[in-house]
Amino acid sequence: MISDQVARHIGDLSPYWGLLGMEPLEAHGGQARVRLPFRKEITQLYGTVHGGALASLADSTVALAIKSIAPDSEIHSTVEMKINFLAPARDSDIICEARLLKKGKRIMVGWAELKDKNNRLVATATATYIVNSFSP
User: Fold this and answer.
1) How far is CA 83 from CA 6, 41, 43, 113, in A?
2) CB count, 10 Å around CB of 80?
3) How far apart are CA 27 and CA 4, in angstroms?
């Protein structure tokens, strides 16, 4: 299991988190919160946060929620994700809150909600993960 303290350093361990600038805020009990700071580098042609950056935030936050309750020896991979973009994210950090909905022996399902600085819902996502049988 991962603690809040370890979660705060996940960006140091994952180059992709650092590339996007994602900041873990908390992770415990099958729940997690992660901030994606607004930067021009993650916007698309019209100045809103790129959907790929939002999808990455949702995927990473659900994965962190899973890691908060899973044994350290388990390795998880996303096998499916669905995201609904509900409003443009413009000039605002995005906070993603995720929780594990179901943990089976091999398959887990999580849910994420992404909000802007005004607490406006910009996207929701569900994601399915598998416990891998290999080591990195």
Assistant:
1) 27, 21, 18, 10
2) 11
3) 5
